[in-house]
Design a protein that fits this description.
The complex is a heterodimer of chains A (201) and B (150). Chain A has 201 residues and is α+β, with helices and mostly antiparallel strands. In chain A, the strands form three sheets. In chain A, strands 2-1-5-6 form a four-stranded antiparallel beta sheet, with no helix packed on it. The longest helix of chain A has 19 residues. The chains are: A alpha+beta (201), B mainly alpha (150). Chain A: It holds the Pfam family Ribosomal_L21p.
């Protein structure tokens, strides 16, 4: 029974949320004027010194465990949630995502998807606020196809009024294949929360 | 008496009737019985189908948004958190995942989704949202536990 409780506790502990370890974790929403959201200010601001010592040690041990797992390549296959052209995609290596509308990259271009909102492996998950640090997760992709969508019919008719209009439209589509998702840097508990909030989302 | 007005020529349809009807029959080829063979029935069905297709493109987006909401709500209700509390907690924690991605995580990455629910619940408890009154006993979100409730 105690072994089961210990296993349960260890299982629960295996989902750390690294970005909550940063200083100013209760920072108000950085882009609230953009999305017009009402954000209630935090009751008090917390910095690293206010976190208890044992929790700080536990955070550091979790980061060390993640780094050890990544060093030994035991983390399994990574998935990431990327923000691309106003949409969010949950991607894993080998996926093909579809970008609708006009998009300048051409066939064969290799691009790096920088706005990673969340990344996870078998035993850990990194949650960005709102995005992870630049350069922490490298998502490489290749444009594989540029085509048009199927024909969409825009048909309007008003009965008994002799009004009928019909338009056809095909929008440009770009297919992007995800080549690799890698954890480029070791995870530490002191992420630079200020630099990511300065970036435009 | 010779008719010289050009608009009167509109009454004469000419040889294009076959091709005009053929375009409608091609769209009605998969219908059944007389809607496939008889032009007066076929064009009514084709017009109704095209109108439904135009309206359906907007309705599909609403249906998908409703489906994602249902899935996210079911996912966070099994941890005792309502959907509005979950969304508000994530927004106040600066996590801007949308409902499509959250529903994907709830289905395919349940442990990541569980972590997000814990973050949201802890945030709701700390900031005194009406649904959550106290912290969960299994809370594992570091960095927030030094805050006092009330």
């Amino acid at each position: 029974m105690s072994f089961l409780a210990q296993t349960m506790r260890q299982m629960l502990r295996h989902v750390p949320n690294r970005s909550l370890l940063t200083a100013g974790a209760m920072r108000p929403l950085s882009i609230s004027p953009v999305i017009g959201q009402q954000n209630k200010p935090a009751t008090e601001s917390v910095d690293l010194s206010a976190i208890a010592k044992d929790q700080q040690k536990e955070c550091l041990s979790i980061c060390e465990r993640i780094n050890r797992q990544v060093q030994k390549s035991e983390q399994g296959r990574l998935f990431a949630v990327v923000h691309l052209c106003g949409k969010q995609f949950k991607v894993t290596p080998g996926d093909i995502i579809l970008v609708e509308g006009y998009w300048p990259p051409t066939i064969g271009d290799e691009i790096s998807l920088d706005k990673v909102l969340l990344a996870g492996a078998r035993d850990f998950t990194l949650v960005g606020r709102p995005i992870l640090e630049p350069g922490l997760i490298l998502v490489k992709a290749t444009v594989v196809e540029k085509t048009l969508s199927h024909t969409k019919t825009h048909f309007r008719k008003k009965r008994r009024k002799q009004y009928m209009r019909i338009n056809f439209q095909r929008s440009p589509h770009t297919m992007v294949r995800i080549n690799s998702i890698e954890l480029a840097r070791p995870v530490d508990g002191n992420g630079e929360g200020e630099s990511s909030s300065r970036r435009l989302f | 008496m010779v008719f010289l007005n050009l608009p009167l020529l509109v009454r004469s349809r000419g040889p294009d009737e076959f091709w005009r009807k053929r375009r409608i029959f091609k769209l009605a080829a998969h219908y059944r019985s007389r809607t496939r063979n008889v032009y007066s029935f076929a064009i009514r069905s084709v017009h109704r189908a095209l109108a439904y297709a135009t309206k359906g493109r907007k309705l599909k987006k609403l249906d998908m948004a409703q489906l994602w909401s249902t899935r996210v709500e079911a996912g966070c209700q099994q941890y005792g958190v309502g959907l509005e509390t979950f969304k508000e907690g994530l927004a106040r924690s600066d996590i801007l995942l949308n409902k499509k991605v959250l529903s994907d995580l709830a289905i395919w990455e349940p442990r990541s989704f569980e972590a997000l629910v814990k973050i949201s619940r802890e945030r709701a408890a700390v900031e005194g949202m009406p649904d959550i009154k106290r912290r969960s006993a299994f809370n594992q979100v570091y960095g927030l536990s030094n805050l006092k409730l009330d």
